[in-house]
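Components:
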Amino acid sequence: MSADADMVGRLAPVSSFQPAQWARKRLFNNWYNALLTVVFGLAIVQILVSLYRWAFANAVLFATPQQCQALAGKGACWAVVLQQGRFILFGRYTYDQQWRPALGIALFLLMLAATCFRRLWGRWLLMGWAALYVVFGVLMWGGVLGLPYVEQSLWGGLPLTLVLSVVSLTFAFPFGVLLALGRRSSLPVIHSLSVGYIELIRGVPLVTVLFMASVMFPLFLPEGMDIDRLLRALVAITLFCAAYIAEVVRAGLQGLPRGQYEAADALGLGFWAKTRLVVLPQALRLVIPPLVGICISTFKNTTLVVLVGLFDLLNTASTTLKDPLWREEFAEVYLFTALIYFGFCFFMSQFSQSVERQLRRRQGP
Amino acid sequence: MAVPSAREARRGAFWNDRAVRGVLFQVIVAGIVVAVAWYLFSNTLNNLALRHISTGFGFLGREAGFEIGESQIPYSPADSYSRAILVGLVNTAIVSVVGIVLCTILGTIVGIARLSSNWLVAKLAAVYVETIRNTPVLLQLLFWYVLIGTALPGPRQAWQPLPGLFLSNRGVRMPAPIFDSVHLMMLGLAVLGIGASVWWARRCRLRQEATGRRPPLLLPALGFILLPPLILFVAAGAPSSFDVPALRGFNFAGGMGFSPELTALTFGLTVYTASYVAETVRAGILAVPKGQTEAARALGLSGGRVLRLVVLPQAVRIIIPPLISLYLDLIKNSSLAIAIGYPDLVSVTNTMINQTGQAIEGVAIQMAIYLLVSLAISALLNWYNARIALVTR
Amino acid sequence: MSQTNLPSSAADSPIIIALERVNKWYGSFHALNNIDLTVARGERIVICGPSGSGKSTLIRCINRLEEHQSGRIVVDGIEITNDVKNIEQIRREVGMVFQQFNLFPHLTVLENCTLAPIWVRKMPRAEADRAAMRYLERVHIAEQAHKYPGQLSGGQQQRVAIARSLCMNPKVMLFDEPTSALDPEMVKEVLDVMIGLAHDGMTMLCVTHEMGFARSVADRVIFMDRGEIVEQNEPKAFFDNPQSERTRLFLSQILAH
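Structure:
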């Protein structure tokens, strides 16, 4: 009781944000900080003002290409985004059917948002993703349910980027897990095959793997068989990701305390049961942040398929700029494209950072 | 008491033996791999024969027959393919080396800035890192390339931020130093000076161990390295000539030039990789526990000594391995040169593949060279890790 | 030591574990040096000794978590070799409790206990759940059945670990320093469970420093040093009248306070 009475007098003062004090502590606390603040502050203000003028004040939304060229850099010509936006986003997909890829993208974003809530993780979420696959395929290809068929050589833009990322990650993941297990195996043949594959793929750029796939795959197949370009790119990206996923999963397997393996052994669990029930659930949870990092890199890496003739989001943007009418508006087009990529990547990286924070809190001090 | 020996006489089926199972599994896997490889291999031979594509590396000696946009070693279309590949390799090396040096400097500055107590500076660094990391590198490269091509003026109106340094849409041009025998001797003296500094550092350390007093190290060392060359320079009448670029007609002549492609590629790769370097440096410094600084201070060490003797050695251990893999990423990303027309290794071999049709050999050469570089750097990393690893029980 | 084919009466043999001239090396370090040991059914054995003496290695060889290089180990009539089927069978009959508990953090307490019965003994889930709850009650922790290991104290986790091993109905329980990682106030609850097990007739091999436990419950105390069994005796004789000089030295060190 007396302890409470003691505490009353010792309650902490209510803290409030005092701008002046904060500025003195964080911006001007000594002479070189003050100098830096002034210099950078002025520079920032100037940049922001001219950016505002270019992007908003002097910008035009509805204009012809000739009017845009007349603007010549004083103002942004957002008309290019408006007029070419559908081409940039959907490529050469049949014009009046473009609601289909748009719907597919919306559903994908929905699933992505749902996956961020760890409480929803479980069998239903996986089935949701499987259903999304089917629905997306139906929407894009058509041919059923009265939807006209659109062949995949016409696919382009954001849907194509999503297909490339998601499909290759889906197949790369189990392959990568197997490679990681193989690399930790004590059987020499399995170990050397895994190590050889991982080091080979990680040592070369994605460009080379893409070329290898697009140029060498036709040679690997029996005469007459041909693989679609999209499939070749998918295989290349899958093979590439699997090696990186393998290294991340291997780190997780190494990070798991040896006692877990021993306890599972002592209970009499065989290798596959032990891996499936005890090792992988824990090891994968340990490495969620790096795995999300691989998802982000894969999403960005899909831009390389321009080199094998696929029209992903970046390629459609670049193609727009090849048109002499719009050649000057490269800043607007690239900015628009960059914003889309930034949106996806930033969102995913924030998710991974929040998972990291949650994991750290759970482990305690 | 006798050991019961009943069921032990039952040896058990041999295929249940752990070792035997392991061998069987490996034989099956190896068999599958070999079978698949054989199938692919025979298909390939078949297809190559059908398309009249030859095999083997003999084509490397043939005449290349194509131009290469820029080359640091003499090259003409009459040279062989292997020379063309060498040109591409040198180009890749230039971009890689310059990129690595610049991105380390920039990345370290940004990484430390992010830890600054100044809110504005820290936030700016954070904005830089987040923006660059969340956009594809190819998009950034294309942006810089088009920017240089369209936003920079023609050579006649080139920007001149520093005397002799010209920026235009034909690239960057700066004065090229002309080397003279005096400069060579200066270099030699500087190298001797480094040797003298090393000797002096040893003497300082021995003196400190013997008597506890440490003679000054930094100033004498700098003196050894800088003073003799400087004296020679002045005594020889300060010969310094630069080949300054001058506008001749539509373009510059003289001095050193970097094409827009090279500039865009190097600049873009530097900015991109620097953001990752910044994160690595920041993580490394943060990873050193605060208790280390506290303990060092409690022992009476001053600020600079705390940094040099306690914090930096630990931070560097943490930073170096991921840093080296970032360097490898930069080298691999330089292959994107093909998208903006810079003749690096991939670009040149690609042209070669298109002309000879020998895709397998071409891709194999690419992979072999990149693998060599990767493995060399990994080996270096492993050696470094083993040397500096903290000793544990 | 004959190798004759005894009939199934070996299953009722009074000896459940037998080690015969067992040797183990870690590289050039001789961890187990010509160990001869027999354990009778229902016997409670405490193994003690300084660190590095090989006591943990010894019991870990019994369920093949470590491999011995020479000699024979026979558990419940089955000799331990490289035969995977033998190893699996032995591990079903031998339960182990670790110093670091090693509970599976991603499963609840109940799921920790039912994992092996379902996947190894192929029990239906409902039956496994019932059996698990019985054992959890036996170690006085049934009310935590749906919590996660991370939410329990060290003593509670170790009791769950004991219940987890018991759910497999083992014939022998191995304990590898079960209380060494616990805060002092939690040691008693775990020891009480172990004493309860002993009174119920379980064959137990314990590596521990808890000499009070040894005195009250053990049938035999074994002292190991530098990979050898130096001395073994019933507790009263062992503590009151140690024969070897090394035993005397060790006892003086741990019983001093």
